[in-house]
Amino acid sequence: MNHALKTLQQRFITFEGIDGAGKSSHLQTLADWLQQRGQSVLVTREPGGTPFAETLRGLLLAQSMHTDTEVLLMFAARNEHIHKVILPALEQGSWILCDRFTDSTLAYQGGGKGADLGRLRTLARWVQAELSPGRTYLFDIEAEVAAIRRAAQRNTIDKFEQEDQAFFERVIQTYRCLAQEEPGRYKVLNSAQTLESVSRQLLGDFSAYAIPYLN
Ligand code: TYD
């Protein structure tokens, strides 16, 4: 393992969960917390994060396609994002808060749509090489509760949000398995609680995690 990257990537934080779990608002809370402490922070998302990857996002969220095509486009977007944005920002000592990363592909295309997890992991190793998030927050919520929240909050619904409850149940189960496999990287937050309570737990965990890596 490249020691310089191993240290730098501790500032690469990813946010995961099923649609409706509230991860995007918590990401902003953490960005504010870091900025108030004078840290350099980059907020980004997947699929997306570069102009080209955002174009792929537009296609991925709107068009129906073969699951393998979807997988390959997710990783194509990720490859651009890693090389143009993530690695350069880490090298400059910035924190990166990324709304979704490879765990989303494992959970949605793997768990949700049945793509072979071994194959997805091979692609992940190819595209990421040794890069891995230092910490991943899983905003854990039952599929049924997330569906109610989505119905209350959203006026436009993308392709993935149109999937049925059974799909989201498979997605959240896959996330839970991933979190069990890597307890050192994952922190699971029960997102059925109030936004304030989840935020408090997030900041409590993060402030302890971040101590060695604050500039
Ligand atoms: P999301 O990040 O939830 O954005 P918004 O809050 O604007 O809806 O939407 C991205 C969608 O893309 C989400 O439904 C999950 C899906 N997705 C995958 O299926 N696989 C992936 O690898 C990634 C990164 C996202």
Describe this structure in words.
- The structure is a single chain.
- The chain is of the alpha/beta class and 215 residues long.
- It has a single domain (3-213), classed as 3-Layer(aba) Sandwich (Rossmann fold), CATH 3.40.50.300.
- 58% of the residues lie in helices and 13% in strands.
- α2 (23-36) crosses α9 (195-210) and α4 (67-91) packs parallel to α6.
- The longest helix has 25 residues, at 67-91.
- A five-stranded parallel beta sheet has the order 2-3-1-4-5, sandwiched between helices.
- The chain has helices at residues 3-8, 23-36, 51-62, 67-91, 102-112, 117-128, 143-153, 165-181, 195-210, and strands at residues 12-17, 41-45, 95-99, 135-140, 186-190.
- Bound molecules: thymidine-5'-diphosphate.
- Thymidine-5'-diphosphate (TYD) binds at residues 19, 24, 45-47, 61, 74, 99-100, 104-105, 108-109, 158, 160.
Summarize the structure.
This protein has helices spanning 3-8, 23-36, 51-62, 67-91, 102-112, 117-128, 143-153, 165-181, 195-210, and strands at residues 12-17, 41-45, 95-99, 135-140, 186-190.
Question: Secondary-structure blueprint of this entry?
Answer:
Elements: H1 3-8, E1 12-17, H2 23-36, E2 41-45, H3 51-62, H4 67-91, E3 95-99, H5 102-112, H6 117-128, E4 135-140, H7 143-153, H8 165-181, E5 186-190, H9 195-210
Parallel strand pairs: 1-3, 1-4, 2-3, 4-5
Helix pairs in contact: 2-9, 3-4, 4-6, 5-6, 5-8
This protein binds thymidine-5'-diphosphate.
Thymidine-5'-diphosphate binds near residues 99, 100, 104 and 158.
